[in-house]
Amino acid sequence: MMSGVFARLVGQQTVEAELLAAARAARHDSAHSGMTAGGMSHAWLITGPPGSGRSIAAVCFAAALQCIADDSDGGPGCGRCRACTTTMAGTHADVRRVVPEGLSIGVDEMRAIVQTASRRPGTGRWQIVVVEDADRLTEGAANALLKVVEEPPPSTVFLLCAPSVDPEDIAITLRSRCRHVALVTPPPEAIAQVLIEADGLDRETADWAAAVSGGHVGRARRLATDPEARQRRQRALSLAREAATPSRAFTAVDELVAAAESEARDLTLERAEIETEELRTALGAGGTGKGTAGTLRGTAGVIKDLERRQKSRQTRASRDALDRALIDLATYFRDALVAAAAPAGVARPNHPDMTDAVAAMASHASPDRLLRCIEAVLECRDALAANVKPRFAVGAMVATVGQALRDGL
């Protein structure tokens, strides 16, 4: 197991070795020495399935590039020097993380980041820009980024994170100018070990959470420690059964969508309240001096802009929560499909704690109908990505799933 900052990356030994080799090369070679193995590049594309650690890998690499410890003291990426600790904490002056709070990253935001990143480093070795969820770049934002990636400043490094190299996730022009690093789904054993060592969980809980998390480290941690997360998972999986019962199907749709919206409110409400109060205070609300009565006049647009960004953030959180539920549902049908079509033990189940329910479904629904259920869930995810209203998209999915399951009974 790697030490230093890369200890936070789970089950990605090959990627760790490649990024460390590049960080070492960056210390000795001229900047942007090419795309050769082990060399340094000005632009990187880090891909991997949800929960594999794309953004963690990017930040760890940024820390290794900024690390001031020498090789004999654990560098690059020692995890102890000021450069490493501030990078990992998100406070390093020369490392900027672009994290989309809404449904996309707009052109104005990207232009501002590019302009700042084009300056010379202030305290570090490099100016580094980490773009999390680069698949959320609008066309204009991607073009603004492409211009600087094509002709990069000598001391600037761009680290883009996306699910895959598919053109739906990252523009071909951007992809062609980046060195690609692909993460894999961490094995359950590695995730369980992290939960035991870092979170102090018992072996049984850690093994269960790792097994049902779909290789998503953060999801495993939430399932192991948050009873409400476990309830949401059960609600999503129950939809597989309730979809076949017309009297329950659309009630289940409302419950699933409402649960996602409630989770989003819980995640974003406190931050929104703090932001609103800080803005109102900055604009002079609550003052008692002469003239303060009219302080907020003409500031309605500023407050409305904040409210718009907060609403966009909450919408994204709701879509993300609903997407997690849909992935649980799709992998549940996948387990049933495997049970119906393949000998026992051929593939590891995604929901080993639901073996009896999965076997019952597999005994009644044919493989082609289970495959139609999976397709319906994936079509629902596509519809949500196209901004179809959640109740419409999930309702259409449940109608298709219910029909497929009733025909198979």
TrEMBL record:
Keyword Cell membrane: no
Keyword Transferase among UniProt keywords: yes
GO biological process: DNA-templated DNA replication
InterPro entries reported for this sequence: DNA_pol3_clamp-load_cplx_C, DNA_pol_HolB, DNA_Rep/Repair_Clamp_Loader, P-loop_NTPase
GO MF annotations in UniProt: 3'-5' exonuclease activity; DNA binding; DNA-directed DNA polymerase activity
Gene3D superfamilies documented for this protein: P-loop containing nucleotide triphosphate hydrolases
Enzyme class of the recorded protein, top EC level: transferase
Domain of life: Bacteria
EC number(s) reported in the record: 2.7.7.7
UniProt keyword list: Nucleotidyltransferase, Transferase
One Pfam family here: DNA_pol3_delta2
Database matches in SUPFAM superfamilies: P-loop containing nucleoside triphosphate hydrolases, post-AAA+ oligomerization domain-like
Name of this protein: DNA polymerase III subunit delta
Native source organism of the sequence: Mycolicibacter arupensis
